[in-house]
Recover the amino acids of this structure.
């Protein structure tokens, strides 16, 4: 997919297994939204082939729509409509909808059911959007930032509901800016950047990376020029050093007491004052930053 001279999706190939939760992650502008909108039938691809539940989402959209649910990050409801009026309206468009009272209770919408959409909080709008996507009993649901703006209790309830959908055989494709959300929910994660797929795997596969351990070094002021190369030389060829931002680095490889001692000695030689030095496994955020060089921010 191109927008003028910009290539938004560049030969991207991925597969989503039935009955799974799949997360599509990427920095802003990576092509996530264009990819999902193409799968949902809102955009026609300029090249390649897309099949959703075996159907072409653009040419066979009429047959596909009753089988999928779509939760948009913003919008999807009229400004003045009350929350439960909107949910009841969407339910009436489906042959065998879920009970709207049950769904609103599960998602904490009962207390705001008579509130106009424009007066709902961001988290309440997200919960209504999710209810609208699920009320038609879809085989496949696309959810864009499902917990944006939600408080911790509503976020946990949403996670539990998505877990239940998977257990019932529903396929879920989600985008999120919350790494812990992707790590908790997803069976498979696809990371894309500049319209290309750059990594795929389960959360465990992506964070293990064949390395034994990681050290995260955070300092009180920006590192001097050439710091990653200098520290890598001090630690030896079996260790990889990645500068995550101006004041933090990730050291990946064999990690033991001597490694920590080498890092501490390097800091002393280069007049670098550590704020924290922690040993542990790589997180999904570490992997994302290593692969893309971007923070995943909303």
């Amino acid at each position: 997919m191109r927008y003028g001279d910009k290539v938004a999706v560049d030969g991207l190939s991925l597969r989503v297994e039935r009955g799974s939760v799949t997360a599509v992650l990427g920095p802003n502008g990576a092509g996530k939204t264009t990819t999902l909108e193409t799968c949902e039938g809102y955009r026609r691809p300029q090249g390649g082939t897309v099949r959703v539940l075996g159907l072409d989402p653009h040419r066979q959209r009429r047959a596909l729509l009753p089988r999928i649910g779509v939760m948009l990050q913003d919008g999807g409801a009229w400004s003045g409509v009350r929350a439960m009026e909107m949910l009841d309206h969407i339910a009436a468009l489906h042959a065998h909808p879920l009970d709207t009272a049950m769904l609103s209770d599960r998602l904490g919408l009962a207390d705001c059911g008579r509130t106009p959409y424009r007066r709902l909080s961001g988290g309440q709008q997200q919960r209504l959007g999710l209810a609208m996507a699920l009320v038609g009993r879809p085989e496949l649901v696309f959810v864009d930032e499902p917990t944006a703006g939600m408080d911790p209790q509503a976020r946990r309830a949403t996670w539990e509901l998505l877990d239940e959908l998977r257990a019932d055989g529903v396929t879920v494709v989600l985008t999120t800016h919350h790494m812990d959300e992707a790590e908790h929910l997803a069976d498979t994660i696809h990371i894309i950047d500049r319209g290309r797929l750059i990594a795929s795997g389960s959360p465990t596969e992506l964070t293990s990376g064949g390395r034994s351990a990681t050290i995260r070094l955070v300092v009180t002021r920006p590192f001097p020029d050439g710091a990653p190369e200098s520290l890598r030389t001090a630690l030896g060829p079996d260790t990889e050093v990645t500068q995550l931002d101006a004041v933090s680095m990730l050291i990946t490889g064999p990690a033991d007491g001597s490694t920590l001692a080498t890092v501490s000695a390097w800091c002393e030689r280069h007049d670098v004052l550590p704020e924290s030095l922690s040993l542990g496994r790589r997180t999904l955020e570490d992997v994302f930053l290593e692969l893309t060089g971007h923070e995943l921010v909303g």
Q: What stands out?
A: The first strand starts at residue 2 and ends at 3.
